[in-house]
Structure formats: C-alpha cells, structure tokens
Amino acid sequence: xxxxxxxxxxxxxxxxxxxxxxxxxxxxxxxxxxxxxxxxxxxxxxxxxxxxxxxxxxxxxxxxxxxxxxxxxxxxxxxxxxxxxxxxxxxxxxxxxxxxxxxxxxxxxxxxxxxxxxxxxxxxxxxxxxxxxxxxxxxxxxxxxxxxxxxxxxxxxxxxxxxxxxxxxxxxxxxxxxxxxxxxxxxxxxxxxxxxxxxxxxxxxxxxxxxxxxxxxxxxxxxxxxxxxxxxxxxxxxxxxxxxxxxxxxxxxxxxxxxxxxxxxxxxxxxxxxxxxxxxxxxxxxxxxxxxxxxxxxxxxxxxxxxxxxxxxxxxxxxxxxxxxxxxxxxx
Length: 332
Description:
With 332 residues, this protein is α+β, with helices and mostly antiparallel strands. The protein folds into 2 domains: 5-182 and 284-320; 209-276, Gcn5-related N-acetyltransferase (GNAT) (Aminopeptidase, 3-Layer(aba) Sandwich). It has 11 helices and 10 strands. Strands 1-2-3-4-5-10-6 form a 7-stranded mixed beta sheet. A 3-stranded antiparallel beta sheet has the order 7-8-9. α2 runs antiparallel to α3. 34% of the residues are buried.
C-alpha cells in the first residue's frame, strides 16, 4: 500500500481542522505562529500528514537567540558553554570562550542550524515518532527532496523507551547523536516504593497545607502565575536558551488537555505546578539515568555538512564518558 504524504504550509494550513488535544495545539500554532506560544522559537511551521496522522515539521532558521529546542547550535554549544561557566566558576570566562568559539564557528559555517525537525512539538521531550518502516522511509525521501540543503532531525529519541522506533530510524539511514541524559522511573516497581525519599514525599504530600487542583476550569485563572513560575525557574535562573513559554501556551495546553496539570494552591495563590503527558503508557523523569538522542538524516547533504554532525556525535559521545556535559539541568 502506498504511503499518503501531504505537507501543509501557508494557506494550506487552513485545511487543518482543530479537533482536540494535540491537533488543536498544531492548529493554534499554525494560525497564530510559533512565537505566540514560544517567544524564542523563530521557525517556520509546517504540518505533515502521513496516512492521516498529523505531525509538526519545523523548518529551522539561522537566527541568533533561538531556543535550543529548534537550534542545534544553541543546544550543543551555547547551552554547554553556559552550564560550564556555572559549574566551573574557577575557569576564566575568556578561556571558556576561547575553547568553545572554534567549534561553534565551524558548526555555524557548516550550517548546523539549517535543519528541518520532524515531530518537534516545541516541547523538551517529544512523543515517540509513531511511523512504521514504510511510512518513515517514504517520508524521509520526500523531506530530503523538498529540503535538499537541510538535515532532517528527530529529537527525543530514547532507545530505552522506544527500541523499535529507534531501530526503524537507524534502518532508514538516520545517525544517532547523543543529546542529553534523562531519568526514568517505574512508579509501580517495588524499588521505587521502597526508596526513603519516595516515602518522605508521600508523607509530606499527605499533610500539605496546599490544596491540590487538577481541574482545568479551576486552574485556568492561574495561567499568568504558571507562566511566571516557569520563567522564573527555567529562563531567569537557568538559561534564556530554554523555551520562553507564553501565557497563551499554558492556556492552550490546559484548555485542550494537551498536558495534564496539577497545581498547589493556598489562599487563592498558585505556588507550584507540574504538567505532563502520557504517551504509550510512558511518562518520562525519575531516577534511572538513560541517554536520549537526536536522530539525524544527512545523507543528501554535501560532505562538509555531514562532517558537522559527525563531529557533534564524537564530541557528545566523549562528553558522556567524561561526564563533562551539562545535562543535569532540571527537567522541563
């Protein structure tokens, strides 16, 4: 059976019916533009429909200040420089700049940010790419032909959680470039329940003075506070390369149940919240470290462009073995 592939952009995006949940999220981004929801995501949004399944396709732009969610240069180099400066305060900033400037220059000249991101929802952790081998091969061929000057990147590839999907990407010619370390937990396991901090957390939760709210209608008035709390932690405290999510992002994902939200409210004030989604019975984060990768297809690019991704693969692999990388930042 022939795979049906339809790429919607420009006026064609009006054909995307909002629906509910993730489809409504895509329709909103298409209608309002990505920067209405993530201020530092200056990318072109397209939607690719594969046999009826709609997936986001972000066309990267080589612009300064883009979030690391859609800029390999920011993700692999600039963020690393920031984290090294924080964690190695004894190293003179000029020395760090001298060490990192050459690889950054090489990657920039090699056009590392000229990439199209398949299945990039502008979330730190994306759902796995649910395409079979035939669909993935056909889509890869179509994207390489449509974007001959751009690498095709699939973020959030986790061999531990999705070994079959990872294998399909490899079979279709994608290389795996180490992206970061994430932590997984099985809350149903005896080991998790037996941990002292798990028991302490449960006890604290049982006697908290906060009201725990999960209903969207109750949490909706607290959307401005959600945006403030997020920015105070992830942008102001950690890095301006993190996604600068707007109030509209939180309102949309709350209203359309894209994420499940849980807020801690006391005296009418929201002081903490978490948001998550479940995909194939999986929710990331926890206690067991595993490696996450970018899957990169660059076989259609000239040698010097492929070399940039090769060097990144070598460098990130070395960082993993020497523990110099910066991926101890908080989960987003």
